User: Fold Signal recognition particle receptor FtsY from Methanohalarchaeum thermophilum.
Amino acid sequence: MFDNLKKKINIFESKVKEKTQEKASEEKEDKEKTQEQKQEQEQEQERASLGQKAKKFVTERKVFLDEDDVEPYLEELKLSLLKSDVALEVSEKIVEKLESNLVGEEIKWRENSEKYVKKAFKEALIDVFPSEFNFFDFIEEKDKPINILFVGTNGVGKTTTIAKISKALEEKGYSSVLANGDTFRAGAIQQLDKHGENIDKKVIKHEKGGDPAAVIYDAVEYSEANNVDVVLGDTAGRMHTDVNLMDQIKKIKRVTKPDLIVFVDEAVAGSDAVERAKEFDEAVDVDAVILSKIDADVKGGAAISISHTIEKPIIFVGTGQGYEDIKEFNTDWFVGQILE
Ligand SMILES: Nc1nc2c(ncn2[C@@H]2O[C@H](COP(=O)(O)OP(=O)(O)OP(=O)(O)O)[C@@H](O)[C@H]2O)c(=O)[nH]1
Assistant:
């Protein structure tokens, strides 16, 4: 996961570490020169004690990095982040915060300066994420049935993600039904049926060509009548550029009044995923994001940029093709994955 990005961040960290050590040695040389001049003026018998003082200085040496020291590395880092599909605005924010965390700070070079840079980096990354959203607290507190609508483009893992969430809900003691709002393709009906069979969940569906809003509406009514906690509404994958389909999703929202609208995209789509998130958010005011396929993502850009760009939290990440392969998103965990 995020292998390319990790490599680039490691390069930055080593360069700043080298710079810190280089500065420490330069300061040591300067100090030693001053000591030598002093020595010339002093008595022969004081030489030994001066040697002692210099030694003390070396062990306690502190380094201050200034803008010129880190500027070239920060520029390189910004480019690396952009190449890893981190959005421009987000890359700039990370680099600015990193600069303010590093410049003028006292770094004790004998302590692990790499650890120091990592800490500065960690803070800069955490800063780009909006506050977290606890999905299961939301489920616990909200009146039932809770209607959750999943939107996104084709093939990103939306349907699989719905099945994963249904299983995760079951593990926490909540019941759910799957509603097939993708009435365009007969294949989509079969696909959701198959997931329903695999995880032993009821699927509410209409014939191909039916009204997706009506299917989800029926699923809510069914859940009210049968004390089901959560309706998980699938929708047809659609390109954000398809005006008719985007109008249809607005209609589904209007008619079924979802309690939560979740935008699903694949982390591997990088900056495309960020662009699509913006479009879907504009169309239906997304509440939260799920990023699938982070197990296959080497760049990490979408995961870093998406929630900052639309100011909505990531709630889960997909980590594989199995039903258990889903993880609640947590900023500390995520940043740890990148900086480990
Ligand atoms: N590696 C990996 N694969 C995933 C993950 N989530 C889903 N997939 C795979 O992605 C492929 C597409 O998943 P679907 O659930 O069919 O995607 P969809 O968005 O519902 O597709 P449409 O119904 O065509 O819009 C399947 O092969 C899934 O197994 C994940 O987190 N990691």
In short: Residues 3-126 form a domain with the Four Helix Bundle (Hemerythrin (Met), subunit A) fold (CATH 1.20.120.140). The longest strand covers residues 260-266.
